[in-house]
Amino acid sequence: DALPAIALGVDVAEHDIMKRKPRKLSKSIWQEIRGFSIFAGIIAASVSSAVYYHAYTGNYAAEHLRTLVFTAIVVFELFLVFSIRSETHHYFTNFFKNRFLLAGVLTSFILQLLAIYTPFFQNIFRSVPLSANDWILIVSFCTAGIIIIELWKYTSKLIHKKN
Fold first, then answer.
1. What is the largest CA-CA distance in the chain?
2. What is the pLDDT of residue 83?
3. Which helix (H) or strand (E) holds 85?
4. In b/e form, how buried is each residue of 9-40, taking b as 16+ CB within 10 angstroms?
5. Mean pLDDT score, 109-120
């Protein structure tokens, strides 16, 4: 997720940024994003654990299991980058505005495909090709994780409005 993370540095500013109260100088940026970061980390771990559990109980070979979990982690991070762009706005806000972010996500995804579908990288990563059903499993769990994160953002926004 390095390329998408770098691309976030040139992301467009949120349209309502100047309407928000400024952060207190005594508070670090980390204090403001700590809860979200911890929650997103728990969801990421849960998604990869769920994929692992599903594959493990399905008696997948070790290489197949490793490839599934590795790919689930990468795909989740590529999905997550669109969610972390804003702590107040939904996933698809300004989705196509940052072409560098879209290019970074696409490039990272292509690199992941190379890692699991080309013999040279299969030897390095000890990966195996994934089937359509494997991709459905990965995308389903990753999408569910992002929906949970977006619901958390939405409820946090409502709570902050009331205060």
1. 56
2. 85
3. none
4. eeeeebeeeeeeeeeeeeeeeeeeeeebeeeb
5. 96
